[in-house]
């Protein structure tokens, strides 16, 4: 993989976190992600699912900041993201899973609008990915691939492990 391809892949992952597109990752991006998911699935911020999502978003941000915000200015720049989040988490994907899990669990619960017992349908996950900025094509492919046992439902564990790989393993064949 040449350096231009590596840079492009890093840029995609950074953009996925930079929800408001202002060039840095901070708490507002995690709150924006939570708000977008709640709006998409018609859930209020005040209900249990909504509060769990915001609590998870804050924990995700705190975890990300703890790993990557080297200068402590409460913003993660592209350089901090590459040096901290990607490099440090690559050797420790369990750490990523740990900081992302509360948010992902809550997001699955919000997306589980049909009450599938804490699992979300492939279609719901596709909607969630799209509202978080994925293209229609990528969202469709990603949602299908998350349903590893092909029962049409996606569990928290599927999302946690797939996302940990996506953000920490930058391979030539990954998009
Ligand atoms: Ca931002
Ligand atoms: Ca910083």
Short description:
The chain is mostly helical and 175 residues long. It is 66% helix and 2% strand.
Topology:
Blueprint lengths: L2 H15 L9 H14 L7 H21 L9 H13 L2 H19 L8 E2 H10 L4 H11 L6 E2 L1 H13 L7
Antiparallel strand pairs: 1-2
The site of one calcium ion has 7 residues, from loops.
Beta strand %: under 5%
**Fraction of residues in H or I helices:** 55-70%
Bound molecules: calcium ion
- Radius of gyration over C-alpha positions, nearest whole angstrom: 15 Å
Q: Please, what is the CATH homologous superfamily?
A: EF-hand
User: What is the CATH architecture assignment?
Assistant: Orthogonal Bundle
Main beta sheet: strand number and arrangement? 2 strands, antiparallel
| Strand neighbour order, sheet with most strands | 1-2
Describe this structure as you would to a colleague.
- With 175 residues, the protein is an all-alpha fold.
- The chain has a single domain (3-174), classed as Recoverin, domain 1 (Orthogonal Bundle), CATH 1.10.238.
- Helices cover 66% and strands 2% of the residues.
- The chain is built from 8 helices and 2 strands, in the order αααααβααβα.
- It has a two-stranded antiparallel sheet with strand order 1-2.
- The longest helix has 21 residues, at 48-68.
- The radius of gyration is 15 Å and the shape is globular.
- The two termini are 12 Å apart.
- The mean pLDDT is 89.
- One calcium ion binds next to loops.
């Amino acid at each position: 993989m040449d350096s231009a391809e590596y840079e492009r892949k890093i840029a995609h992952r950074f953009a996925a976190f930079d929800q408001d597109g202002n060039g840095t990752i901070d708490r507002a991006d995690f709150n924006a992600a939570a708000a977008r998911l709640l709006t998409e699935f018609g859930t209020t911020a005040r209900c249990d699912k909504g509060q769990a999502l915001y609590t998870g978003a804050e924990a995700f941000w705190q975890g990300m900041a703890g790993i990557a915000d080297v200068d402590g200015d409460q913003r993660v720049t592209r350089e901090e993201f590459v040096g901290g989040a990607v490099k440090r988490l690559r050797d420790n994907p369990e750490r990523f899973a740990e900081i992302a899990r509360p948010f992902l669990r809550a997001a699955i619960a919000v997306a589980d609008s049909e009450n599938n017992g804490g699992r979300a349908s492939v279609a719901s996950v596709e909607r969630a990915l799209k509202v978080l900025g994925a293209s229609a094509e990528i969202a469709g492919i990603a949602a299908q691939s998350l349903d590893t046992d092909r029962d049409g439902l996606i569990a928290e564990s599927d999302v946690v492990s797939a996302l940990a790989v996506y953000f920490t393993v930058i391979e030539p064949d990954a998009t």
